[in-house]
Amino acid sequence: MKPMGMYARKRLYCLALAAAVLPFMTFNITYWIAALLGHVPTCFTYLDGCTSVSSTGRQAPEMWFFKPGVLALAFVLALHWHYVAETLSQHGLPAARARALRTISLISVMALTIYAVTLGLPDEQFGNLRRVGTHGFAFSSWITQILFVVLYQPFRSAATRGLYRWLVAASLGLLLVGIASEIAKISGMPRKPTNNIAAWNAFLLLSAYYLVLARIWWQHYKSTGLAASPNE
User: Fold this and answer.
1) What ranges do the domains of the chain cover?
2) Mean of the pLDDT values across residues 153-182?
3) How far apart are CA 197 and CA 139, in angstroms?
4) Residue among 13, 16, 8, 18 at smallest CA distance from 218
5) Using omega within 30 degrees of 0 as the cis cutoff, is the peptide bond preceding 3 cis?
6) Triad 223, 104, 30: Cα angle to 5°
7) Read out DSSP for 121-141?
């Protein structure tokens, strides 16, 4: 395999790291501001679910941090997955599979953008559109992550084999959060707090996924190629 350029490796590492940090920082900082101003209840959101992720960005001034943070995340994700598809294509990934990765990731980015733009606008006019953005991002983002797990598998190196397992675990964790939340609601748990807990923890796992992915790209950044062998 031809070596992966140093700039390309560093670029992927920086973009994945930004994709990990942006949602964690954005949602937790805006929650802290909103709680401090009395716009949302005070609790440990990851376990109590006293407020939704969206509620932390509905009012000013926290809105002016929330929306740019989410739009910046959409931009970073668009760049990251574009360059991932390009890099894997250069190392032997079939063009059709690279296009599939780009297409699904683009759908997730568009859905996230719709969500960010419509948040805080009147529900009677934009509520359905915002829900399309929310659910569209949740589903297409997870499909993008799973697709990458499958497509990257042949390109693992000895240095990234263990990290690859953590990547799989983060992807499966997102699925388990969704299943657990549905089971909890069927068992009689209040719907809204259960959904809130699921959403907060889903975004935490999203950050974890990209943090592991950043580490994978860092390992490639330190090496001379994308992988020692395409079948290792």
Assistant:
1) 6-222
2) 90
3) 17
4) 13
5) no
6) 85
7) S-HHHHHHHHHHHHHHHHHHH
Average pLDDT, the chain: 89
Kindly state the average pLDDT of the residues 185-198. 91
- Checking if the pLDDT of 7 tops 70, the result is no
Residue 7 CB-density burial (10 A; 0-12 exposed, 13-18 middle, 19+ buried):
exposed
What count of other Cβ atoms lies within 10 Å of the Cβ of residue 2? 9
Stretch 167-175: mean pLDDT: 93
Check if the beta carbon of residue 155 is closer than 8 Å to that of residue 216: no
Global pTM reads 0.90
Helix axes 63-90, 123-152, angle to 10 degrees: 30
Q: Which residue has the tokens 């670029």?
A: 11
Instruction: Give me the pLDDT at residue 4, please.
Output: 47
Contact of 87 with 105, CB cutoff 8 Å: no
